[in-house]
Amino acid sequence: LDGTIANTEFEAHLPAFNLAFEDFCLNWNWSKSIYIDLLKINGGRNRIKYYSKIINQYISDDLVIKIHEKKQFHYLKIIKKNTINFKTGVGRLISELNKKGVRQFIVTSSSRKQVDLLVSFLFKDFNPFEFIISSDDVELHKPNPMPYLMAMKLSGIKKNNSLVFEDSNA
To answer: What's the pTM value of the predicted model, to 2 decimals?
Structure first.
């Protein structure tokens, strides 16, 4: 979803992280280039923890959780402003697949709350997705195959009859 269907990484996630850092009086401000490098790390909490280590500024796991919760708060506020756009060509692709009767699903590391809000803003007229697997639905998150295997099981579609679009090597 993020970075694959919608331009959320730089339009919503990055500013939300920086706002959360301000809220906790951390002297951190991720530039676009720093964030691009951090995107190699899956999950917002993991990015925060990793960054604290590379700059040698230890923060507790409890603080990581609180920063991430605040980041999610800011992310949802940004999404509600309805300024997020589709990645180039993705809206048309999803619409054409829907018209052809191709079944579509979302498998994401984002929370259910984030996904539902973003999908409702991006797909005002129709929701082309049969179901969504979010981080709330699985114990192990991507890049672990569990979310995709759950989607396969729920859909009844065999692996060799499926196509996955991703925006990260992981």
So the answer is: 0.84
